[in-house]
Amino acid sequence: MKTEATMLEIGNFEDLEHLVGLLNQAFEGTSYRLEKVQDQKQTYLFIEDPLAEDEYECGMIQKIGKKAYAYSEAVHQMIFGAYQRYLETTGR
To answer: Is 56 exposed, middle or buried (0-12, 13-18, 19+ CB in 10 A)?
Structure first.
C-alpha cells in the first residue's frame, strides 16, 4: 500500500470534487468524474472520458483525511493538465 510520502498531493478532496464539476461545465465533449473503488477504503478513480472516443484515461486517487493524493506522477499531471486547460479556456 502506498503512503502519503510516496504519493503526490493534489490538495483538498472537496476542492477536487469541485474541480470535476467545473471541468464538466467547461468541456462539453469530455466527461470528468470521481468514482469510488469498491473494496478499497478511501480510494477513487479520477476519470477523463472524451465522449467521442471509445477509450478513457483514469488514475487512482487516495483520500487521506481532508487531502487527496495521486498514486503516480501521471495521474497528478492528468489532473493538473485538465485544470490548466480549464484556466486557459475560461480565462480565470
So the answer is: middle
Query: What phi and psi values does residue 40 have, to the nearest 5 degrees?
Result: -130, 115
Strand partners, 67: 12, 64
| Closest to 35 in 3D by CA, of 48, 22, 50 | 48
- What cell was used for 73? 506522477
Cα 9 to Cα 76: distance, rounded to the nearest angstrom? 8
Q: Find the radius of gyration of the CA atoms of the chain.
A: 13
What's the pLDDT score for residue 6?
A: 79
pTM of the model as a whole: 0.88
CB 70 within 8 A of CB 7: yes
Mean pLDDT of all residues in 26-41: 94
